[in-house]
From TrEMBL:
PANTHER family: P-LOOP CONTAINING NUCLEOSIDE TRIPHOSPHATE HYDROLASE, PARA FAMILY PROTEIN CT_582. This is AAA family ATPase. InterPro entries: AAA_dom, DNA_Partitioning_ATPase, P-loop_NTPase. Residues 5-182 form the AAA domain. Coiled coil: none annotated.
Length: 259
């Protein structure tokens, strides 16, 4: 199962959602991989506790290899780093991804990630792919490589306006490149149950027939502590309300999609 977390709007919690769902999957015994395609490297820092700039091998090296033919290229497994948490590995990001993007686009390397992850099908039960806040080469590569898509939504009007264009973009990728790609649902993040506007906006999405997933993820300062310590909620405070919401969301996805 390959699952991409995607939104063109920044600050909606893509990396946080990616890493916490992946950590729960690993905690439950599934062999889990996080692929961090965002040059900012937030997922890499969150799970590994270290920046990709301080690692010997990253996704920038993988993509650079696709541009430069070698007689003995590295295998995809060599770009994977084990995390401190059992069953959880990372293909780390690097700021150098930004500089490679135009070259990758011009030489049409859009299917390389899909092919690489297909080689790992027997090694991992589930793969989570974090993406940049833009519909660029890396995001398209992720959508082409994935079985399904989760869309974080942070309950404001700007996010709502962006949502419709985002859904159209996913459908275009599906029609042109990946017929198996599905939208698993919209993940409501930073939800404030006592505030009127978030409830109103989310209910309107539901009334429009959009696939809003429950439970919603609550706003909590605890997540900042989780980021600071590089410990996803299931490891930092598994009994916290937000941790339990993540577990419930993970288990709902697992029941519906088998991973």
């Amino acid at each position: 199962m390959r699952r991409v977390v995607f939104n063109q709007k920044g600050g909606v919690g893509k990396s946080t959602i990616t890493c916490n769902l992946a950590a729960i999957s690993a905690h439950q015994g599934k062999r889990t991989l996080v692929v961090d395609l965002d040059p900012q490297g937030n997922s890499t820092q969150y799970v590994l506790g270290i920046s990709g700039e301080n690692l010997e091998t990253t996704l920038a090296d993988f993509f650079d290899q696709t541009l430069n033919f070698k007689l003995n290229p590295k295998k995809i497994e060599e770009f994977i780093v084990a995390s401190p948490f059992p069953n959880l590995d990372v293909m780390p990001s690097h700021p150098g991804l930004e500089d490679l993007q135009s070259k990758l686009e011009s030489r049409y390397k859009i299917y390389k990630l899909r092919d690489a992850l297909a080689e790992l099908a027997d090694d991992y039960d589930v793969i989570y792919i974090d993406t940049p806040p833009a519909l660029n080469f890396y995001t398209r590569s992720a959508l082409i490589a994935a079985d399904s898509c989760l869309i974080p939504f942070d309950c404001d009007e700007f996010s709502r306006r962006a949502l419709y264009a985002l859904l159209e973009n996913v459908q275009e990728i599906r029609a042109d490149h990946n017929r198996d790609l599905s939208v698993e649902g919209i993940v409501v993040n930073q939800f404030q149950a006592r505030a009127g506007l978030p409830q109103k906006v989310v209910q309107e999405l539901i009334d429009e027939g959009l696939p809003v997933l429950a439970p919603y993820l609550s706003a909590s300062v605890k997540i900042k502590e989780s980021h600071e310590q590089s410990r996803p909620m299931i490891h930092l405070d598994p009994k916290h309300k937000l941790a339990l919401e993540y577990v419930a969301l993970h288990d709902r996805l697992a029941r519906a999609y088998g991973a």
